[in-house]
Amino acid sequence: MQDITHMKTRIFLLQLVLSLIVLSVSTASTQNMPTSAATGDSLYRSNILKSKLYGVYIPRDIPDAMLRLDGLTDADAREKLKNIDERTMARKLFFGLGRWMEYNWNFQEGSRISHLLRKKGLTYTEDMTTVMLILYHRHVVGRELNVDALIAEIAESRRKKIEEEKSGLQLIDSFRVVVPVKKQ
Fold this sequence. Notes:
The chain has one domain (36-167). The protein has eight helices and two strands. It has helices spanning 2-31, 42-47, 62-72, 75-81, 86-104, 112-119, 125-141, 147-167, and strands at 52-53, 56-57. A two-stranded antiparallel sheet has the order 1-2.
């Protein structure tokens, strides 16, 4: 009897864990969607005016963000960044420093820095993160940032990716609704 109870408990825990995984995956898949209504949301409008959100300072512009990132990294870490190219660095740090920026600088719900990036043409939070990481690499190695050109490149890459995904979908031209007629 105890074995059956133990087995039922293990099955329940397994179901619970699987449910949590499914829930987190479905939530994560919607988090990177662009929010066309974001700029009309009252929380967004409020957040983009604040210098601090949830106790974290929000950079006012790109140069300010570079200074903040310098403060978060030590000199040894910055030296190591100089030995790899910017795209590799962006991929490697995406789920570390990149997630820190996305979460703490509130890219999803809006902040001064995310609003600046949106105005320049980025709507996906993962694109904002990638741009900030590449810009930081350029800052560390002493290259010109070329912010607008980088944003245009990332935005165009996103547009092409969306077009490719759309081209693989079957387009439905029209549909016909058949309404049954009651015979009298």
